[in-house]
């Protein structure tokens, strides 16, 4: 039997003050936000208004079930509407660049090569290092380490071009060419790096290569640290008893991984191009190219070859670092 009109709650009489405050806060944030991001957010959100019930229904689920449902939802939505939104952001970069800017960028082959080294040498080595310590030192599952290694093997993110455009607009064409070159070769480089880093035989090869290189180029350092290695190994083993919770451990590892890549790209560029007039701008640009990977490609790979949904966590961090650079820009 239908309920009487008097028994139904009148939603027009009372307005939740908390909701009103939230709406005002959102409007204030949007008013202060970058217009390109606001428009891009609308492109992403509009097609999914009808799916908001899916998100709301997850709050009544258990943690594992909620994680699987939301993970599937993010993968589907991101894969379908990521490209149009990203295309709009890249259009915003393109309309502020001219043909001569790109021609000038090609006149800097050393910078292009340094970017390639940062993306496919420095970042994969850091990914392997953090993947190994996540498994051996922190005792995390193997798929977490594999996710870290895999995300370090993909090409640079297109959002790094937009990040460069926000901080150093004159370097945006150079950043676009850097990302284009890495993307053009990723179909060959990523499988090879994945085989080397995630393959079972790489640990032995990598260990011996590091030992030989250290003894060859840094013999004094090897002699200095050799007495400390036995007690250090005991200390590392004892760290298992003071580890943070599982989620916090993953978060700290991923933050440290990406920050290390950003810092490595910045320092590496400063050492190579310390005499360049625009060395600071070039350092920031190559830092983005080294530290920001293509999250969509990594997301597709980990969901194709790894079963656990937690593996995608590593591909979801990157663009937040831009805000730090924006505040620290000279």
From TrEMBL:
- Coiled-coil region(s) at which residues? none
Q: Which GO terms describe its cellular component?
A: chloroplast envelope; membrane
The protein's location, in the record's own words, is: Membrane; Plastid, Chloroplast envelope
Q: Organism's domain of life?
A: Eukaryota
Keywords carried by this UniProt record: Membrane, Transmembrane, Transmembrane helix
The answer to whether keyword Transmembrane helix applies is yes
| TM segment ranges | 125-151, 171-198, 224-243, 249-273
Please verify whether the record's keywords include Mitochondrion. Answer: no
Q: What is its main location?
A: membrane
The record ties this protein, via Pfam families, to:
SBF
Bilayer topology: Multi-pass membrane protein
The family annotation for this protein states: Belongs to the bile acid:sodium symporter (BASS) (TC 2.A.28) family.
* Protein name, UniProt field: Sodium/metabolite cotransporter bass6
């Amino acid at each position: 039997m239908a309920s009487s009109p008097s028994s139904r709650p009148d939603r027009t009489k009372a307005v939740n003050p908390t909701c009103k405050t939230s709406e005002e806060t959102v409007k204030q944030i949007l008013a202060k936000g970058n217009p390109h991001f606001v428009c891009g957010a609308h492109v992403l959100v509009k097609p999914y208004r009808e799916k908001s019930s899916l998100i709301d229904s997850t709050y009544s689920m258990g943690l594992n079930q909620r994680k699987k449902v939301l993970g599937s939802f993010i993968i589907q939505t991101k894969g379908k509407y990521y490209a149009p939104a990203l295309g709009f952001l890249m259009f915003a970069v393109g309309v502020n660049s001219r043909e001569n800017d790109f021609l000038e960028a090609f006149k800097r082959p050393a910078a292009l090569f340094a970017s390639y080294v940062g993306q496919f040498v420095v970042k994969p080595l850091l990914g392997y290092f953090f993947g190994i310590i996540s498994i051996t030192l922190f005792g995390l599952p193997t798929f977490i380490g594999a996710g870290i290694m895999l995300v370090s093997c993909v090409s640079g993110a297109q959002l790094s071009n937009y990040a460069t455009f926000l901080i150093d607009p004159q370097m945006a064409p150079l950043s676009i060419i850097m990302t284009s070159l890495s993307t053009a070769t990723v179909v060959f480089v990523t499988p090879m790096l994945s085989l080397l880093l995630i393959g079972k035989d790489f640990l032995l090869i990598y260990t011996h290569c590091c030992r030989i290189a250290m003894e060859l180029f840094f013999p004094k350092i090897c002699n200095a640290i050799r007495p400390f290695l036995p007690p250090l190994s005991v200390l590392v083993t004892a760290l298992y008893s003071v580890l943070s919770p599982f989620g916090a451990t993953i978060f700290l590892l991923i933050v440290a991984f990406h920050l290390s890549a950003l810092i490595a790209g910045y320092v590496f560029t400063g050492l190579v191009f310390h005499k360049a007039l625009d060395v600071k701008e070039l350092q920031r640009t190559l830092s983005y190219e080294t530290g920001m990977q293509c999250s969509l490609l990594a997301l597709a790979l980990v969901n194709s070859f790894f079963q656990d949904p937690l593996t995608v966590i590593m591909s979801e961090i990157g663009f937040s670092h831009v805000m730090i650079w924006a505040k620290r820009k000279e």
